[in-house]
Write a structure and sequence with these properties.
This protein is an alpha+beta fold. Helices cover about 15% and strands about 35% of the residues. It has a five-stranded mixed barrel. A five-stranded antiparallel β-sheet has the order 8-7-6-9-10, with no helix packed on it. It has a five-stranded mixed β-barrel with strand order 11-12-13-15-14. A hairpin with a 3-residue loop joins strand 6 and strand 7. Belongs to the CvfB family.
Length: about 280
């Protein structure tokens, strides 16, 4: 019986009881889990799962996500001590264990994000939703991107994220990599992001940037530097000669972007550089 949990089965109705129908293998189909009136010996297609009491039950609401079958599921609740619950299309929301979520909670999904999951079981046989790993996507889940996608604007949900970069699947099914230099902050797992294609690879995957074009990002970076100067009593220990890694570690932008922003501010006579430091010019 336990091997049926998390799958769609065609089962025979044995009898009707006060709360619903008893199917073969003593699986209960509650009245509120079906829109049809059933009769004994009738066959019915159902999704089999366990309720909160651990009883094996069924529903005629059939999900696209099953054990070994992946699909997108929306996050409907997040509990720090447990993980995230997702809607797979049935009355029962399924838990994504915190053990299968990122280490840092600031990049956990929030309500409304979408995760690409299949179903599995824990040691007690209870259903869990399991996020897809890179191996799953390497099996050909994504579509090859066309060459003319370069510079196009795309949207996609993040399915992997770490310090090196984030990976998304676009709405058209393309696999997109976002290097950490091409994002201002690390996206959440499951977050819908919008970016532009900066490279189409030979294998059909794409590189994506979440940063605006240089002509727009320069103003944003300059504003960020001004804000840092105001918070630091008008001086920061950085200049256009500073180490690129120190710049990225503090401002999360490249040295080239930092120099462009400094140049803009110096041209506007808002800052000056002396002895490896940058000073806010008081007016």
């Amino acid at each position: 019986m336990s091997n049926q949990i998390g799958t769609i089965q065609t089962l025979e109705v044995l009898r009707e009881i006060d709360t619903g129908y008893v199917l073969e293998d003593d699986i209960l189909l509650h009245y509120n889990e079906t829109d049809s009136e059933l009769e004994a010996e009738q066959s019915v297609e159902v999704f089999v799962y366990q309720d909160k009491k651990g009883q094996t039950v069924a529903t005629t609401q059939l999900p696209t996500i099953q054990i070994g079958i992946y699909g997108w599921a929306e996050v409907v609740e997040v509990l720090p001590h447990l993980g995230a619950f997702v809607d797979i299309g049935t009355t029962k929301d399924i838990l994504v264990s915190k053990d299968d979520l990122p280490l840092f909670e600031n990049v956990w999904p929030i309500i409304g994000d979408k995760l690409y999951v299949s179903l599995g079981k824990d040691q007690k046989g209870r259903l869990l939703a399991l996020p897809a790993t890179e191996v799953v996507f390497e099996r050909g889940v994504f579509e090859p991107a066309p060459d003319d996608l370069l510079n196009a604007t795309i949207k996609g949900h993040i399915y992997r994220t770490d310090r090196e970069g984030s990976v998304c699947i676009t709405e058209a099914g393309y696999r997109g990599f976002i290097h950490h230099t091409e994002r201002k902050e690390e996206p959440r797992l499951g977050e819908l992001v919008e970016g532009r294609v900066i490279d189409v690879k030979e294998d059909g995957t794409i590189n994506v940037s979440l940063r605006p074009l240089k002509k727009y990002s320069m103003g944003e970076d300059a504003d960020m530097i001004l804000e840092r100067l105001e918070e630091s009593n008008g001086v920061i220990p950085f200049s256009d000669k500073s180490d690129p890694e120190d710049i990225r570690g503090t401002f999360n932008i490249s040295k080239a972007a930092f120099k462009r922003a400094l140049g803009k501010l110096m041209k506007e006579r808002k800052i000056e550089q002396r002895d490896g430091k940058t000073y806010l010019i008081s007016k």
